[in-house]
Amino acid sequence: MKSVLYLFIIAHFAINPSILFAQNDCPSFENKFNSSYPQCIHIHRQEYILDFLKESRSPIKAVDTAYFDFYKADVTWWIDATFQFTPDSEEFQIATSNGSTKPYKQYAKLFFDRDGAKFELNVYQSLGLIKNPEYSDYLFMPFMDLTNGETSYEGGRYIDLKTSNFGNDGHIQIDFNRAYNPYCAFSGGYSCPVPPKENRLKIGIYAGEKKFKKPH
């Protein structure tokens, strides 16, 4: 059954489903400077790569795994953000890489500080995926930043969240070390959501996945 759901997610989002299911032991945010954090991110990335090889529709073959590239794990990019829910937001269409659109709704706005400046990012909920009870809590935060086209994929990167990540205290922790590329970064033929203008940051996010080193 899970393989069917994997295919549904890939067809709808062109993302790697390992992001939703991979789990490993990591320090808590309060103990994030624990020396085990880099190893935690290393394990997460190994699971991420290995899951490409398990998926029949993956754009990656075993010989391609050497071309993955990541920024060095940097715990300072695991940040605390505040948020505001946006329950009255209206449905809108997010453009995709192949010219189609997909329906979403803004779920919340995030606010965080970095290097003395303030930034905002929107979190979205898919109106297609919300109909599936097993993934009704899935949230999506696509973003672009000043590294795009330089050290990271020009089409932007993604971070996945769940509704349960949003606590009652108005805070949420976002780990940019887990930012990943859409399938379109590896191969053509996929329909990948393009980060909306409001999620295009005027700062370089030097964390997470870099450009795939093999051209396509």
The largest pleated sheet is described as: 5 strands, antiparallel
Q: What is the global morphology?
A: globular
Fraction in beta strands: 15-25%
Radius of gyration: 16 Å
Estimate the mean pLDDT confidence: 89
Q: Strand pairing plus helix content: what structural class?
A: alpha+beta
Describe this structure in words.
This protein is of the alpha+beta class. It has 3 helices and 7 strands. The chain has one domain. Strands 1, 2, 3, 4 and 7 form a 5-stranded antiparallel beta sheet that branches. Strands 5-6 form a two-stranded antiparallel sheet.
Topology (SSEs and partners):
Blueprint: H1 2-13, H2 18-21, H3 37-54, E1 78-85, E2 92-95, E3 101-114, E4 117-126, E5 138-143, E6 157-162, E7 171-175
Antiparallel strand pairs: 1-3, 1-7, 2-3, 3-4, 5-6
Which features would summarize this protein structure in a list?
five-stranded antiparallel beta sheet; two-stranded antiparallel ribbon; 3 helices; about 220 residues; alpha+beta
Write a brief structural summary.
This protein is of the alpha+beta class and 216 residues long.
